[in-house]
Write a structure and sequence with these properties.
single chain, 155 residues, Hypothetical Protein Yqey, Chain: A, domain1, Arc Repressor Mutant, subunit A, 2 domains, globular
């Protein structure tokens, strides 16, 4: 049987590639990602030299993407466009590792089919329903967009 090449290992290899390419922004972003992986391992009471599963790697990257988006919003609101641009570059680098994100239309179709499956969902259960949808779409859809779609369909 062949050795499966994990996402964790692929991202480790990206450090060498970024160093050779003298791509400092990518190098710093990927190093930050590896540090986040180590923090995740420690938080899960595992050894720092272990590897995360691909699913855990995607969770860490998704959190990094969300943090960057929040930072960009705050920097823009504070008139710090230079910092926002720097975060946007890092965001694009991180998004390379995530699965292709669903469009609003794809999310709407998915939510509509789930609403049919579950018979009906009243507005008071919208939060629980959104949580279920997010588990089904794990990593493939932006949480804020899913919430907007669910809210609009249950309105």
């Amino acid at each position: 049987m062949g050795y499966t090449y994990s996402m964790h290992q692929k991202i480790k290899d990206q450090v060498k590639e970024a160093m050779l390419a003298k791509d400092t922004v990518r190098l710093n972003t990927v190093r930050g990602l590896l540090a986040a992986f180590t923090n995740e391992l420690v938080a899960k009471k595992r050894k720092p030299n272990e590897e995360l599963s691909d699913e855990e790697v995607l969770d860490v990257i998704a959190r990094g993407v969300k943090q960057r988006k929040d930072s960009i919003e705050q920097f823009r609101a504070g008139g710090r466009s230079n910092l926002a641009e720097s975060e946007e570059i890092e965001l694009k680098i991180l998004e390379i590792y995530l699965p292709q994100q669903m469009t609003r239309e794809e999310i709407e179709n998915f939510v509509k089919s789930k609403l049919i499956e579950t018979d009906s969902v009243d507005k008071s259960k919208a939060g629980m329903f959104t949580g279920t949808i997010m588990k089904d779409l794990k990593g493939r859809a932006d949480g804020a967009l899913v919430k907007q779609v669910v809210d609009s369909l249950l309105a």
